[in-house]
Write a structure and sequence with these properties.
six-stranded parallel β-sheet, single chain, 15 strands
C-alpha cells in the first residue's frame, strides 16, 4: 500500500510504498477515506508538538475518516506518529472507532472534526459553558475560532464576541451569529479599549492566540468589568500569536480569573472520547464552518507547505478516493496563485 512518509523532521512527507499494517490484539484494519492537514499534524511531523516524539520514519495524520471491513463509516481519533492516518490503511483499536452519522461526506467530516472538536472540548469540558452565558472567542477568524463561534451559539450562549485581525473573516464570524466583533488593529490602547467595550462582562474566553492579543484582551476586560468578583473562565487553546504572555500578578488578585488549558493532556482519554462521540452525533444538525478541499494523497509533498485559503482545509484522499479529488491539483494551484 501507499502512505505519506516523513524521513526528516520538519521536511514534507513523500508518497511511497510501505508495508501493510499488522493489527495487534484488539485492533482492526481500517481503509482510510480522508485525512485532514492542519497545524497539529504539521507539528507532530516536525517533532515540535508538546506530546510528540522524534521517531523516524513516520506517517503523519492525527485523525481521519475510514471504512471498516464490514462497510461501516467510522471516525478514527487520535493516532499519533509514527503510525498516522495518512495511509491507505491503518490498524486501530476497535474500541476507539466512532460511528459517523449516515449521509455525511467523509471528506467534509475529516475537514471539520479537528477545529470543531477543539472548540467543543474547550467549551464543554474546560470552559463549562452554561446556557445564557457569554463567550469571547479570541482568534475567531481561523477554522477553530469560527467553529467556536458556531458551537457556542449552538450550546445556548447568550452572546458571543468574535475577535481577530482579518476584517473579511470577522464579517464571516458575524454572519455565523457573533453579536459583536473586535478587530485586532490599531494601537495597544485602542485594542484594549475595544475589548473593554465589547467583552468586559463575558463569562468564558476561548483563547486561540495567547501572547500580546491575550494580554490586551485581559487588560481591557478587567479595566472595564462591572463586577470583578464575577468569575472569568479563561480557556487557553492555542498560541497562534506567540508562545508567551506577560501578566502582572495584580491582575489575578484584583479579580476572579480562572485560567486553564484545553489540549491533548488536559482531560482523560475517556472524557475526550465521550466528547468526540457527542460532537459526531451533532454534526448532521450543524452548518459547516470549514470548506474541505480534497487532494490526492499522491500530492502530499507538493501541498504540505501550501497555505489553504481562509476558511478551508486540505484533506488527503487515497488513490481512487472518488470524485471529490477530481481536479484537486488545479484547485490547489488556483489557491496558490490568489
Amino acid at each position: 500500500m501507499y502512505a505519506a512518509v516523513v524521513h526528516a523532521l520538519g521536511q514534507p512527507p513523500r508518497y511511497e510504498s510501505v508495508p501493510e499494517p499488522v493489527p495487534r490484539s484488539g485492533e482492526v484494519v481500517v481503509e482510510v477515506l480522508a485525512a485532514a492537514l492542519y497545524p497539529l499534524v504539521r507539528s507532530f511531523a516536525s517533532g515540535g508538538h508538546y506530546t510528540g516524539g522524534d521517531a523516524l520514519p513516520l506517517v503523519p495524520g492525527f485523525d481521519g475518516v475510514g471504512r471498516t471491513a464490514a462497510g461501516d463509516l467510522v471516525y478514527i481519533p487520535g493516532l499519533e506518529p509514527p503510525h498516522g492516518t495518512m495511509a491507505e490503511r491503518v490498524a486501530v483499536p476497535a474500541s476507539a472507532l466512532m460511528p459517523v452519522p449516515r449521509g455525511l461526506d467523509p471528506v467534509a467530516v475529516a475537514a471539520v472534526m479537528n477545529p470543531a472538536s477543539s472548540a467543543w472540548i474547550a467549551l464543554r469540558e474546560r470552559g463549562r459553558l452554561r446556557e445564557g452565558e457569554s463567550v469571547l472567542v479570541l482568534g475567531a477568524t481561523g477554522n477553530a475560532g469560527r467553529a467556536a463561534v458556531h458551537l457556542a451559539l449552538d450550546q445556548g450562549a447568550g452572546a458571543v464576541v468574535a475577535a481577530g485581525r482579518d476584517p473579511q473573516a470577522l464579517r464571516a464570524a458575524a454572519a455565523l451569529g457573533a453579536h459583536r466583533t473586535v478587530a485586532l488593529t490599531g494601537s495597544d490602547e485602542e485594542i484594549a479599549a475595544a475589548f473593554g467595550a465589547a467583552a468586559a462582562d463575558v463569562d468564558v474566553v476561548l483563547d486561540y492566540l495567547w501572547d500580546r492579543p491575550a494580554e490586551l484582551a485581559l487588560d481591557g476586560i478587567l479595566r472595564h468589568r462591572a463586577d470583578l468578583t464575577r468569575t472569568l473562565r479563561w480557556v487557553q487553546v492555542g498560541s497562534a500569536a506567540g508562545p508567551d504572555m506577560t501578566v502582572p500578578s495584580a491582575w489575578f488578585r484584583k479579580a476572579d480569573v480562572s485560567v486553564c488549558g484545553s489540549g491533548l493532556g488536559s482531560i482523560s482519554g475517556a472524557r475526550r472520547a465521550a466528547a468526540l462521540r457527542e460532537l459526531l452525533a451533532r454534526l448532521p444538525s450543524l452548518a459547516p464552518t470549514t470548506e474541505a478541499v480534497a487532494v490526492p494523497m499522491a500530492d502530499v509533498e507538493s501541498v504540505w507547505e501550501s497555505p489553504a485559503s481562509s476558511g478551508s482545509r486540505f484533506v488527503f484522499v487515497p488513490a481512487g478516493g472518488g470524485e471529490r479529488a477530481t481536479g484537486a491539483r488545479e484547485a490547489v494551484q488556483d489557491r496558490e496563485t490568489v
